[in-house]
Every structure is written in structure tokens, then in C-alpha cells.
């Protein structure tokens, strides 16, 4: 691996010296999530810093732990988060790989041992993080149309699914000994037909899939598609379980609200976030609620995992924080006019539209500074284990990675290295590492330092 150092800004100021990430609360729910976040990252009261101190000295906390000040002889989860959330993965980065193709997706596995990256030319690489980032498996995708739009590892990491602009999702056995996995040459990439056709080799490209995710138990897949629908696929039965006509335009993103798997969140080019309770679909037949606030299409949604909060990235150049308890039962009557002269795929966002506000904005907070152009750029909550989900982070069309404070909205880090759009990035679930993938073909790894990791036991 080669290392290359470029600049990182970690002061919360834009190039002109103004705060660029300040959150604008649009409801009364922000104090609640603020309290929850503070509790997750506040040290034990016997460790608590003075009022003049933002953070307690790590040395003091280590001395207190060794002296058993709290009677626990170890750090609590909030002690750990108070320490580790101070140390952001902003150094480096190391260049893990460099391809002659745009990188579209990248994610750490749930246990952090693997890192998956998908490229436009049909390559999907699985890197072994603990084995010096060596390639564990190189997958050559089957029936690719345009690009790899998404990948997802099963919870047990035995299987990987990948999607393209096609109704067929393919599944690969990642646990096999084969390093080079060429579709239907060295290994079988079974096709899962979300269109309901029996023939796996049909040429029906009536819709494509933008997003696909495993359920927590690994028994189902949920997918967002270009035919305005959400699909749920039953892997045990090997058949499509349900198709939900969900939106009035492309559904760009879908995810499970929590581990139970009953509730789904979806986001669309119709500007709406919707909440779906699968237990009620048979009787109600429609969404459980709608969240309005975005002024353009939604590119990605990430759930906080608690069944209450989510964030969404939008083509209106904002990330928004939502509480589903504030959702409406239907779409409100006021509709914002669409600006058909603007297309995010090849045009800059018009400056005169930046200050528009939705008359029925239900979001709790808005985060600005990054750019959402040309592709479906993704955003996430930072890990619960190491940061208490204190931050949110996103790629950007200006080739940078932005990290915002969830509660204050301040821009706490701006990572500069890539030469083209950063479409996806992923924060390691336990250690201060962040992997990024860019249209410059580079997979990069940002760390706490260039020589060692910080891991709080």
C-alpha cells in the first residue's frame, strides 16, 4: 500500500471562515436526540471534566480506571465513546487500490474484518482488513448494465449480493476458496429475479435496482427500484415476497428501520421519505407515514437503528435528520414547484434555489456544505460503538468527505484527497478507520495516525 498525504480541515470553518455545517432545527425533537447522544458519550460522573473542559484527559481517565474510581474496574460504553469519539479517522490516507474504473460503493462488514468495493466496470473486490487489506475475493459481475449500483454482505458474511440497472440481483458465495470469482465461469452467480419472471436469462430491463440490503436475520432482501417500487425477496423460498408501489418516481434508497425488520424507510426522486410497516400492508395497503422537507430528490437514507431516527441525503444539497414520530399520515396539500431546467446529473445547483424552504418541513435539522451532484451520494451515522453516533458523514461531488456534529451541525472534519466524486464511504464499526471510494478509481483508508490505530478496550 502506498501512502499519500493531502489536506484535512477539522475546525468547522469553510474556506471563507464561516460555519458551513450549522444545523437548523425545524421541530422540538432535536433536544431529545441531543440528550440521548450526550448520554452515550458522557463519561462516568467521577470522570466528568470541569466546565471549562470539553473533553476529559485520556490520562486522567486511564488513571481513574486503573484506580477503580467507579468500582467497575473498566470503562463503560459511554466512557469509551467519550474517549474514542475525540479521535477521528482523518489522517493519511493510505491508497488501498487504484482501478481504471469509477468506484461506486464501499462498505465495511458488520464486524469490520472485510471491506467491499464495487466498480463500474463490473469488478467487486472484497479486502481482508486484518490481513493488510489483501484481496480476499475478486468478483467479476454477471449481466452488468451501466454499473454496480449496490452490494450487500449477509450478516454471517457467507454471501454477497450485487445489483445493477436490471431487475436481476446476483448472489455470490463469499466463503468459497476461490479468489477469482468470474460469473458462471469459475463460480455460479445465482440470479434472483425481482420482476417475477421464471427465466433467469430473460432480457427484461424494464427497471433497474438502485439499492439492495440484507435483513438482519439474512432471510430477506429489500430493494429500491427505478419503477417507483420497493421489493422484498424471500431467500429461503427463492421467490419475490412482495412488490410495493411506493412512490411517484424512482426509489433511490431503502433500508430497514431496526433489527426487527418490520419497518422500512424509503426515499425517492419525488422528494419524499416514507415509512412502511410490513405488518399493516395487507390491510392498509399504503405507507404508514410520510416525511416532507426535501426540495429535490433523495439519494440515500440511513437508519440510526433505533426505529425512530433516520438521515437522508438530498439533491437540494442537504442532509436532513428525521424523527418518524413526526410523520404525516398522508402528503400535505402544498406542493413545491419543480425546476425542470435543472438536472443534477450535469448541472450545478442554482444559487437562487439554495435558500428555499419547504412550507411543511418536518425535519429536525438540516446540514449543509457538501455537494450532491451527478450520482446518488450516500450519508451515514457514525458508529455506535466508538462514537455513540455523535457524527454524520457523507461523500460529496467536490471530491471531499464531510463529517458533521449530529447535534450542533458544525462541520468537524473535511477530508481532502480524491480527485473526483466520492460517492460512498464507510466508517469502521469499532476502530478509527474510514474507507472511501471515488470516481477517480481509488479506494482509500483514513486512520487515526499513519502508524497505529486507537482502540479503547
Descriptive key words:
single chain, 457 residues, mainly beta, five-stranded antiparallel beta sheet, 31 strands, disordered C terminus
Quick description:
This protein has four helices and 31 strands. The chain has 457 residues and is mainly β. The strands form seven sheets. The chain has a five-stranded antiparallel beta sheet, with no helix packed on it. A five-stranded antiparallel beta sheet has the order 2-28-27-26-25, with no helix packed on it.
Helix/strand layout:
Elements: E1 2-3, E2 8-9, H1 30-41, H2 58-66, H3 77-84, E3 91-98, E4 103-108, E5 114-119, E6 123-128, E7 134-140, E8 150-153, E9 159-163, E10 168-173, E11 180-182, E12 190-193, E13 209-214, E14 220-225, E15 229-234, E16 239-245, E17 251-256, E18 263-268, E19 273-277, E20 289-291, E21 298-303, E22 309-314, E23 318-323, E24 365-368, E25 379-381, H4 384-387, E26 391-394, E27 400-405, E28 411-416, E29 422-427, E30 433-438, E31 442-447
Spans of at least 5 consecutive residues with low confidence: 1-7, 9-28, 450-457
Given helix and strand content, the structural type is mainly beta
Strand order of the largest sheet: 1-3-31-30-29
The total count of helices amounts to: 4
Report the major sheet: 5 strands, antiparallel
Q: What is the percentage of strand-forming residues?
A: 35-45%
Number of strands: 31
Q: What is the C-alpha radius of gyration, as a whole number of Å? A: 22 Å
Shape: globular
Helicity level, as a percent range? under 10%
Mean pLDDT: 85
CA(first)-CA(last) distance = 28 Å
